[in-house]
């Protein structure tokens, strides 16, 4: 389950990758990015579990729309307030809850045996966390290398605009395919 969830994020989960990149662009240091990503994992672990077990009913198409819209919102916030939003941890947590329902559908595709549910959920979430750590390390390495030649604020702002544009296009695409 561990390797399946890593593969679900890298390279298959481009929406998750863009969310984590946007999250990285919202902070100034590696530690904050890791803490926010872990908060995101905690939140999506909750809805992943209750969604997989069936304790909550949801429309997967609407969840996918909210996932892409959450990426858009996070990226736009980055470009507007340069990541200094005190509410950011709460926003990340709420977005994690939404993303967890998306993961629940992915997990259902794997056909888990109910008796192994706890082990599978832990393995899945650990894999997601490892994939996020890889993305965070890559992003901070890239920012460090590129910041030598460009304004860091401009780099973060333009990258956030690009992510927002992609996410908004996904949102509209998902709305029109309902």
Walk me through the structure.
The chain is mostly helical and 178 residues long. Helices cover 81% and strands 0% of the residues. It contains 7 helices and no strands. The two termini are 30 Å apart. The mean pLDDT is 85.
Can you give me a brief rundown of this structure?
The protein has 178 residues and is mostly helical. The protein has helices at 2-9, 14-25, 30-53, 60-81, 88-109, 117-147, 152-176. Helix content is 81%, strand content 0%.
List the defining traits of the structure above.
178 residues, single chain, 7 helices
Order of secondary-structure elements? HHHHHHH
Which shape, going by the Cα principal axes? globular
Amount of helix: over 70%
Q: Please report which band the strand proportion falls in: under 5%, 5-15%, 15-25%, 25-35%, 35-45% or over 45%.
A: under 5%
Structural class: mainly alpha
Radius of gyration: 16 Å
Mean pLDDT comes to: 85
Number of DSSP-assigned strands: 0
First-last Cα distance:
30 Å
Biggest sheet descriptor: none
């Amino acid at each position: 389950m561990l390797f399946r969830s890593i593969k679900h994020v890298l390279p298959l989960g481009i929406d998750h990758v863009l969310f984590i990149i946007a999250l990285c662009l919202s902070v100034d240091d590696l530690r904050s990015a890791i803490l926010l990503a872990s908060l995101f994992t905690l939140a999506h672990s909750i809805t992943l579990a209750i969604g997989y077990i069936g304790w909550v009913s949801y429309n997967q198409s609407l969840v996918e729309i909210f996932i892409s819209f959450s990426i858009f919102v996070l990226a736009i916030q980055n470009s507007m307030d340069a990541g200094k939003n005190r509410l950011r941890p709460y926003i990340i947590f709420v977005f994690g809850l939404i993303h967890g329902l998306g993961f629940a559908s992915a997990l259902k595709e794997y056909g888990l045996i109910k008796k192994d549910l706890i082990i599978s959920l832990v393995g899945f979430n650990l894999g997601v966390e490892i994939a996020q750590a890889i993305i965070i390390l890559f992003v901070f390495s890239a920012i460090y290398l590129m910041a030598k030649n460009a304004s860091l604020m401009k780099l973060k702002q333009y990258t956030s605009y690009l992510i927002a544009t992609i996410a908004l296009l996904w949102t509209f695409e998902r709305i029109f395919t309902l």
